[in-house]
Amino acid sequence: MIALVAVVVCVAIVLGVYPLVKKSSSKTTESGDSTQLTLSETPTAKNTSNVPSSEDIAAKAEKFNVGIKLYGQSQSIFSSSSKNSLVGEGSGIIMGEDSSKKYTYIVTCAHVISEVKTSGYTMTVTDYEGNNYDGILVGYDSKTDVGVIKIQKTGLTAAEFGDSTTLKKGQTVYAIGNPGGSEFFGSFTKGMVSAIDRPISSESGYEMKCIQHTTPINSGNSGGALMNEFGQVIGINSSKIVSTGYEGMAFAIPISDAKEIIDDIIANGYVTDRPKLGISYAAAEKYQQYAMVVKLKDLPSGSLVIASINSD
Prior knowledge:
Number of domains: 2
Number of strands: 17
Order of helices and strands: EEEHEEEHHEEEEEEEEEHEHE
CATH architecture of the largest domain: Beta Barrel
Structural class: mainly beta
Strand order of the largest sheet: 10-11-12-15-14-13
Radius of gyration: 20 Å
Oligomer: single chain
CATH class of the largest domain: Mainly Beta
Shape: globular
Distance between the termini: 32 Å
CATH topology of the largest domain: Thrombin, subunit H
Strand content: 35-45%
């Protein structure tokens, strides 16, 4: 079982009336910025003096790691009033400032932030010093699980991004993120590359080629950095296998593949030139109440339930 590694405190999507369950609200932000993610050349380690220590990499990484918290309205059964409650947490990587020098971009996973748009949640971003900022959704791509947000703050330490195409099996890699959420903020771990371009199917059914690695990651690490032995970010941690009998099988989105997606999202708020159906759906047979409707109405095998309709 492939599990996304964002912390989910409660599940907010409920399938209800057939065939339409809910319509997503449209909450977007301005786009059109020309800022792009820059990939630095990866050094060659001809001798160990060129390679920084793990302590140096950890000290550098903690400054560009952020925590992302999502909040939604919840209502007590004993009161008619509602309050903001924590519904999910993840990690993010400080990319750099926008062209206006008013905002800072943060790269993360789409599944960490998508419910800001689909469910109307709000975001709070926390830096390594414990400062909190309102998170602004720039855009995301569920197909590749890549997302971008921004905060109205500048002067933060940005990550250095490397060329993931130069990775080789057996190389040392490091991860930083927030496993379990803010309680273990900035946890730093070490592993090695197990495989390159490993095909992994996302929840949307799209097959992504990921970096397979042994670096320990857990729920809350989604959107956090995977770094090479020079401390350059070469991947975005996204998922791991959590089934019994599997251990040390984590996956990251290669940053060289994500770059084009990130640049497109910053420029347009979404990935351009891609056909879009505009709905989310599920097989009716997966849900007892809908399976009964299919049987009673003598509907064709393979009938689908429309779970949501995207307003855009």
